[in-house]
Amino acid sequence: MGCCSGRCTLIFICTLQLVFALERQVFDFLGYQWAPILANFFHIIIVILGLFGTIQYRPRYIIVYTIWAALWVAWNVFIICFYLDVGGLSKDSDLLTFNISAHHSWWSEHGPGCVRREIQQAPGVHNTENHSYITVMGCLMDYQYIEVMHSSMQILVALLGFVYACYVVSAITEEEDSCLRK
Question: What would the pLDDT profile of 92-119 be if each residue is shown by its tens digit?
Answer without folding.
Answer: 777 777 666 666 777 777 778 878 777 7
